Every structure is written in C-alpha cells, then in structure tokens.
Amino acid sequence: MHSKGIETEPLISPNNHRSYNANTNGDVENALKSLSYSEKITFTWSEVNVFTLESTKPKRGFLGCGFGDGHINGQGKQILKNVNGIARPGELLAILGSSGAGKTTLLNVLTARSASRMVVSGLRCANGVPISSNALTSKLAYVQQDDLFIGTLTVKEHLIFQALVRMDRHIPYKQRMERVNEVIIELGLSKCENTTIGITGRIKGISGGEMKRLSFAAEVLTNPSLMFCDEPTSGLDSFMAMNVVQVLKRLAQLGKTVVCTIHQPSSELYAMFDKILLVAEGRVAFLGTPKEAELFFASLDAPCPPNYNPADYFVQLLAIIPGREESCKQAVNMICDGFARSDYGVKLAVEAATVEKEEYKFGDYFNGRRKTTPYKASWCTQFGAVLWRSWLSVIKEPLLIKVRLIQTFIMAAVVALIYFGQILTEEGVMNINGVIYLFITNMTFQNLFSVIHVFCAELPVFLREHRNGMYRTDVYFLSKTLADLPLFVAIPVITICICYFSIGLNPDASHFFTAAGILVLVANAAVSFGYFVSCLSSSVDMAMSLAAPMMIPVMLFGGFFINLDSIPKYFQWLSYLSWLRYGYEGLMVNQWSDIGYINCTGSETCPKNGSVILDIYHFSVDNVTADCISLLGLICFFRIMAYLALLLKTYTIE
Predict the structure, then answer these.
(1) Strands 257-261 and 92-96
(2) Domain 43-52+76-353: which topology?
(3) Cβ neighbour number for residue 350 with a 10 Å cutoff
C-alpha cells in the first residue's frame, strides 16, 4: 500500500497524487494551501439501510469505509430502505420530506453521526472512492439545527476561538486571524462582529438569522469541501430564511458540495435549490432538479397544480395522513417504485454505486497517513484557547459577576448587622457558634447552586464541540475550573472581611487569615461538589433535584445539628464526605482555642473558656491542619469524580 500524502494536505483527486516531505515547512505550506483550496468532491451513497437496535450489530466494512456490511435479521424497525443519492460540487441539494420521513436520519448517516442504537449498512464514496467515517468527518462541515454558543462572547471572539481549535496546528496565528476576517466578510457579519451573541431572556444579542450565519462561519473557517445543514431555516421568518439559503447557495457556487434538509420551504426558496431529494417512508421518491421533479410527477398522473408551491405539494403527496395510513403507504410505495424504474432512478443507482475499484484495492486515499489524534490543535493550544474563552465568559457574565458580588455584599452586610458586636457571654457564645455555621452553609449553597446553573448551561456546547473534535475533555474541565477559581476565592474573602471584625470574632490577625483560608476551602469544596452533580445530570432541573437530597447528609453530619460522636456507626462514613464537618471544626477551633475567659455571671451551664466549648462539640485543637487537608482532599476528590462523570458522558454520547 503506497502513501497518499500527509494529513495536512488538501484533498486530492485519485488521478492527481502528490506527496510532500513531512517537515515543518511542508506542513505549514500545505496547511496554508488548504485555506485557499479545497478539493471538489462528488459525494455519493448507495444501498443505505438503517434499522433500530433489534437488528444484529454491524460489522466493520473493508478498511472501515463501509457503513456496516453486517447481517440484519429484520426484527428491528427499518428507518431507511436502500437509499441512493449523489451530491455534486457547485450544487445545493435540499432533502425534503414530511416529519418522520427519515431526512435527519439520512443526514446523520451521511455525516457519520448516526446514533449508537442504530444498525447502519451501505457505502459512502467521495469521487468514487469509499471513505471511512474518520476521514469523512475531517473533511466536512455540519451545521446542526440548534445553534449553541457561549452567549457572552462577541461574534468575532467566537470565531477567533473556533479558528484556534479548528484550524490546522501548523497555520500561523496571523493567517488564522486573516481567515476570521475573511469569513466575517463572506458571511455578511461585519456589522455585528463586535456584538455580543446573547442569551435568550438575559442578554440581548444578535438576530436569529445572524446566529445561523455565525454557525456557517464557524464551519467554513477550515474551507471544507463538504457541507451539511440540518433544517437551517427552522424558526426563521421568510426574510431570514431567504438570507440563510442565499448563503448556502453562495457557498455552493464557490465549489463546495452543500446538502441540507429543509422543512416547508417557500416557493422562492424552492426555486433556489439546484437539486432536491424527496424522502418518504425511508425511501427515495425522487432526486433531480426542481423542474425534473415536476415532470416526473406529471408522468405519474400527479402533476403539481398551477400557482401551487411545488415543495408543499410534493411533501403533502408523500405524507402519511392519520386515519389513511394504508392507502397513503401504498401511494408512497408506488411513487418510490416508479422512481426506481424511471430513467432518473436507474441513472442514480448506477452513479451512486460507481466505485473506483483500483483505488479501493489500494486503500482509502482520504486516510493517507493515519492521524494519531483527532484534534487539529495541540494540547497547549486547546488549553490556552478554552481558558481564554472560559475567562471571558466569567468576566462578561452578569449572573456571575454583578449579581453574585452584589448578593455577597448584601448577605454579608445583613449578617454583620444582625450579629454585630457579640461579647463573650453565654448568649454571645451561642450566637457566635451559630454564625460560624451560617458562614459555611451560606458559602456552600451560594456557590453550589451558582455552579450548577452556569456549568449545566454550558454542557451542551461542550458536548457538541468535543464531538466535533475541537478539544479534549481534560482541557475543558481544567480550563473551566481555573477560570472560575478567582471568583470562588473572592466571594468568601469578601464575606469574611465584612463580617469577621463586625461580629466580634477572635481579633488576632492570624485567626482572621486562618478563618478566611478555611472559608475559601469550604466554598471550593461546595463548588467541586457542584461540578460533580452537574456532570451527572442532563439539565439544570435534574442537577437541582439531585443536589437537594444529596446535601441533607452533608448538613446533618456537619457537627452543628448532631454531635459527631453520636452519629450511628453505619452512617459515620458519610460524615467524612461532609466538608461542613471539617469547615465547622476548623472555624470553631480557630475561634475558641485561645479564649481563656468567658463571662458566665449567674449561669452554671455557661462554658468558662474556649476549651470547654470545643470539648462540648468534641472538636480537637490538633485537628485544624487535618481539617484543611481533608477539605483539600474533598476538593480534589469531587473534581476527579466530576471529570470522570464528564468523560463517561462524552463516551456515552459518542
């Protein structure tokens, strides 16, 4: 098997093989060429069948180029049935069909994104050469129906981040930024390049049409040869929809192969498509130009009425109407069979099944030299880019900065006023013990729920970008936790600065700094637990539902509601997972360890000094260091568990 070039080389045709020396200059040269030139690819698929999981698992095709080639026992529901198709460079192909016809399933199969619970068979070819899933995903752009962004970034900041993690690692930074500016102009985003993307209901941002164009812009940064879009006009008004399709048309005119699914296009949109693929009941009902579609249906004695939107007519004709399922299915099968027998269908079957046998014999030329990593950027580049974006997200997020800081100041001021000027009497001791526990519970809940809301909201963005091979899981998790750290240090420090001396806690400076350090550890232990719960959950609501009951033992075994020595043996292990336990003991020892006298005039139950108070709670002066180490241990433990849960989530989705 001979080499077909190196991994950074643009796609080449089977008849024009070139090779380059694998040195740095060659890598940079090839990477830069890929931005100005992309191979024109004719993409074909033949005999595509998709079954549900009840079918037997597929076997890998030769060199991984086939979809499945496995035996299918026919027990599962068949979603796609012997689907053939072809998409050519310079053409905009629209996949039309009623809901449930199989449009999105077909698109996912073509882009190697079919669900793990599907059994898929068939063959994909690029320029007549079977292409593996790994090779295909590195050469295509896929714009999904839902636009997911970090809403606090501007349009240009988002594209800069995309350029850093998507583009070949050998491309210099200057060329990346030039490419960003080019794409902004090409996609008509110049007027909003410095506008915040926005978060629905919280931050005003760009329009829906601009969001969709931004999705296109991120995908075309690497100048891909193939482009797939899942219902790009969904949720847009007619003007915005027209604008989006014009962008797709313009991309096709640049020589790209563009395929999209469309739901209920207007007659104006329909006229812009170069080819249409009609799908019904998982079968191909037609593939050709819009004009050919009208001629084909007219030949079946089902002509499109005058002054009627052909797209609406074809979709309605191929729809399965409730209450008339059998007759509709018979009509659909008749149309699909008619297309398969027609000149259009016969020609399509031949073109889709054409494989360059000689090329196939020597292997998949798209693979060339196997990549050792699916990521375009190095680990350090990924880390720097994700950390930069995470930090921007933190400092530009009003929920995290403005509201959180205002909340912290107000809460601390209220607590300071309520407990102001405590003196060392029996009542003062009770109040001080209570406010110390209030410190750690407030730091716990304030930071825990903040993390859950923000981290869960970003998880869908991470999962999509990770699946697209933009950055590693460890890069995201480490960057996110480092970017959040300054805020979760500032909040407990602000709280202790406002409250400590106002309340009348131990005035020694060393005790003040010790209290601040312990409170920072408590806050970050709660944050770590919040990461863990968020990574276990699929939504904010689910995370909140999980966190509430899981916090009950953490609070109960914190040392305030029940003496630690009184905890039943079968529950004692839970107390070691309570950061409130270590935080409360540390702060109590810090407060009372060197208090030699308490004014207990007229009271026999009043503790005479700080040592008596610590004995009542069974706290030891020697445990402060151990408590701090335990808090650090819990921070590490929960973050490791959170990372493993996040890693498992990525594998589950893939």
Answers:
(1) parallel
(2) Rossmann fold (3.40.50)
(3) 11
